[in-house]
Amino acid sequence: RKTAMKNGCRSARNPVVWPIFLVFVKFVMSSTCVFS
Questions:
Q1: Which H/E stretch holds residue 30?
Q2: How far is CA 3 from CA 7, 11, 26, 29, in A?
Q3: Rounded alpha-carbon distances, angstroms, from residue 28 to 1, 31, 33
Q4: How many C-beta neighbours within 10 Å does residue 20 have?
Q5: Where does the chain cross the membrane (predicted)?
Q6: DSSP 11-29
């Protein structure tokens, strides 16, 4: 489990992951607005 945590932190620092994460958050926010 410790290695998984390390990999998560490493991927979080990876700049390539951030745009995908932001798009995912945007998608979730828009879907919550539609369903609510």
A1: helix 17-35
A2: 6, 12, 29, 31
A3: 27, 5, 9
A4: 9
A5: 16-35
A6: HHH-TTHHHHHHHHHHHHH
